């Protein structure tokens, strides 16, 4: 289990344990955290699982694949450095303590 | 207080009950699921789940605890057999349940082959629910022979999984080309080449005459008289909206359960959303079979059940995964009179559908930027010059800037 902190737009924090192997999106879904919509269920097809990764964590995550990068290019209020699609980030032991911020809206 | 009852715990039903609570509905709420499991995603059934790359637990749309925490009465494995609109009662599992308002999210049912041509032989499958996949999972073993009937998205996705797992795959499509009903020849060509490169035997313009076997399917006869042997058969010849319950209750049917722009059926207390419902779109009454629509339609119906009066404006989108290729579709291409193709990097391309000057839809193959740009333009009711689209030097970002309302308003749409 890795601890992940999801911060809603507006500041509400959710600290939850997520099983390794799931994605950061699935961690939010399974804990009913609002704001990560994930319409396509993790297929990298909808861009509604967008978050801003805490600056301290940006370099500790595996790099974006081209598909994720291209989808993000057109998402709502993208930050070129901090934006990620949570369905493309697999939870591993190294991600214990990860903090992500949920944007105001997804599209 | 009788409360709201939702029939059908699929993608739309799950979105509908969640939205009702989010929008402040605090009365009684019941979600009746014909299947024995809580609402789950269907797309992986013909993709990662079929391939064995995704565990069952990951399919569920929400944890089961969500329904309890939201005070939603989730009834699993119960089917509603009758609705009495005059009395606002329904029959479920032998008991009677009253409702103040009712929502139908009954989805669709896969078409089967008639028993007369072997449709009920053992080893003949359809692909709609988890139970269907679990029933056929043991057949997906390298070296076995699979015959797929129907070259739509589901048939092609299953072909991709089977070929990747080392099965010997033959796919027959009665129309002159695969994806004929849903896409332009350019898109069909792309996927034909792709499947052939993985060794799938594609027989287009070929239909199934009958299946052979007694008890278990052994082979097939095609319309040109050819005979082939097979170990099992997957039928992917489309779906029909699940309208039986509504029809028996006297609710109007028009290419699915008819609904108005708010999602209300011909009965004032009954609403419908998702695959089972038809709704007004431009000048037509259409039905869509997609996750994005099921969610949006259901959420719109939820707030309208609470009195919002919000017309539903569909923003169609869809995707399909085959091998390592992702197809993403924005918009609805029906009525197109020409297409332009924009080649992207490596194996990516996109097909842009126009009617006159108006951009209707885009099929983007491994090209999320084309998909996202087109989605923005189409949803804003704008269009872009096809010459700009075709020019490989055009940056897709710039298209968003140059997009404009069409000069000649596409008529009849
Ligand atoms: C294999 C497969 C792959 C797909 N891939 C994609 C894809 O990649 N992208 C995409 O956008 N869409 C895809 N789709 C389509 C998408 O899954 C559907 O459009 C969507 O599920 C529709 O949601 P729905 O809630 O309307 O219906 P469903 O999800 O079908 O749910 C309806 C539910 O109602 C229940 N029900 C029906 N009648 C009764 C009754 N009388 N009593 C109780 N319960 C009842 C049914 O058992 C079912 O569980 C795919 C579909 C399939 C089958
Ligand atoms: S869930 Fe759709 S892109 Fe991540």
UniProtKB/TrEMBL annotation, chain A:
The lineage of its organism: Bacteria, Pseudomonadati, Pseudomonadota, Alphaproteobacteria, Rhodobacterales. Its cofactor is [2Fe-2S] cluster. Gene3D superfamilies: 3.10.20.30. Keywords: 2Fe-2S, Iron, Iron-sulfur, Metal-binding. Belongs to the adrenodoxin/putidaredoxin family. GO terms for biological process: P450-containing electron transport chain. The keyword Iron applies. InterPro entries: 2Fe-2S_ferredoxin-like_sf, 2Fe-2S_ferredoxin-type, Adrenodoxin-like, Adrenodoxin_Fe-S_BS, Beta-grasp_dom_sf. One of its GO terms (molecular function) is 2 iron, 2 sulfur cluster binding. Residues 2-106 form the 2Fe-2S ferredoxin-type domain. This is Ferredoxin, 2Fe-2S.
From TrEMBL, chain B:
GO terms for cellular component: cytoplasm. Its cofactor is FAD. GO terms for molecular function: dioxygenase activity; oxidoreductase activity, acting on NAD(P)H. The keyword Transit peptide does not apply. It holds the Pfam family Pyr_redox_2. Keywords: Dioxygenase, FAD, Flavoprotein, Oxidoreductase. Residues 317-400 form the Reductase C-terminal domain. Residues 4-297 form the FAD/NAD(P)-binding domain. Signal peptide: none annotated. InterPro entries: FAD-oxidoreductase/Apoptosis, FAD/NAD-bd_sf, FAD/NAD-binding_dom, FAD/NAD-linked_Rdtase_dimer_sf, Reductase_C. This is 3-phenylpropionate/trans-cinnamate dioxygenase ferredoxin reductase subunit. It comes from Roseovarius litoreus. The lineage of its organism: Bacteria, Pseudomonadati, Pseudomonadota, Alphaproteobacteria, Rhodobacterales.
